[in-house]
Amino acid sequence: MPSLKEFRNRIASVKSTQKITKAMQMVAASKLKRSQASAEAARPYADRMARVIANLAAAVKGDSAPMLLRGTGHDQVHLLVVATSERGLCGGFNTQIVRLVREKITELQGAGKTVKLLCVGKKGRDQLRRLYSPLIVDYVDLSAFRTMSGEAAHIVSAKVLELFAAGEFDVATLFFSRFRSVILQVPTALQIVPPVFPEKTAEGAVYDYEPDENDILDELLPRNISVQVFRALLENAASEQGARMSAMDNATRNAGDMIRKQTIKYNRTRQAMITKELIEIISGAEAL
How far is 23 from 18, CA to CA, in rounded Å? Predict the structure, then answer.
């Protein structure tokens, strides 16, 4: 049985851990509000951008459409853009995204497709390279950005456009976690090249464009990729803080339970030692 000193050391160690997890929970809670507001503010703009491009695309058909709109005409090579976090201690946030990516890889490889990975964030890269290291073609480090900004999205979108211009893939899909609440983050896959448009566009409205649709699409399509990536990164930032807040709350509660259990064991051990000493004293007195 452990000594009283060992019990005291265990209790002190768990208390120190509890202070850390409580502090991390409070920090995540303070960051969550700002991250959630940014993610919710980006949604209407990204949705409207997709609807505008859908309206423009309806008037452009065939080979006259830009390559980013119509694609290469094949779907043999797939680029999976996997956005995760740079830090851990956020529950199953990263694992859920990676699980969705693994399912997609299995599905594509089962159909005889070629898969390539562009990892955004260290945690997703570390998990994926254990099984799919040869598939990773590039990596974007987000640790250099203290707050999520359009610069990070521009770097990611520039890499996607560069790979597409070089003919490295036919279809690109973006993976991220859509924020719903502190306890619910939904892993999401969004095809960005060629783009998949929402079912509803502009309720029967007819527009005249100046300049023509092709010129506008040439400008909007690359920007749309950057917008969708930026939205995904903002959704990830909010989801990460929500998941971390929930995980640290659970860790704090578990630490409290462990402290109570160790305290009970400590008191029982201490009482047993006192009882044993009393018995030895009484037995010695009786022997005299």
Answer: 8
> What is the C-alpha separation between 121 and 237, in angstroms, rounded?
11
Task: Pull the structure tokens for residue 102.
Answer: 């693994």
Name 81's bridge partners.
118, 174
| Other beta carbons less than 10 A from residue 45's beta carbon | 12
CA-to-CA distance for 207 and 191, rounded, in angstroms? 26
β-bridge partners, 177: 187
| Tokens representing residue 56 in the block | 């423009």
Strands 184-193 and 171-181 come out as antiparallel
Which pLDDT does position 268 carry in this prediction?
93
Q: Based on the residue annotation, tell me whether 119 is a catalytic residue of this protein.
A: no
Distance in angstroms (rounded) separating the CA atoms of residues 9 and 214: 71
- pLDDT digits over 115-152, tens only? 999 999 999 999 999 999 999 999 999 887 877 778 99
Q: Give residues with Cβ within 8 angstroms of 76, minimum separation 6.
A: 113, 114, 170
Task: Give tens-digit pLDDT for 164-200.
Answer: 999 999 999 999 999 999 999 999 999 999 998 766 5
Residue 134, preceding bond cis, omega within 30 degrees? no
Which member of 69, 90, 220, 229 is catalytic? 90
Spatial CA neighbour of 237 closest among 21, 29, 31, 26: 31
Supply the pTM of this predicted model.
Answer: 0.89
Beta strands in 6-64 (DSSP E): none
Q: How far apart are CA 158 and CA 225, in angstroms?
A: 9
Count CB neighbours of 24 within 10 A. Answer: 19
Q: What confidence tens digit (pLDDT) does each residue in 47-79 have?
A: 998 888 888 888 787 777 889 998 898 999 999
d(CA 201, CA 55): 6
For 84, residues 6+ apart whose C-beta sits below 8 A from its C-beta are 93, 94, 97, 98, 119, 120, 121, 122, 123, 124, 125, 236
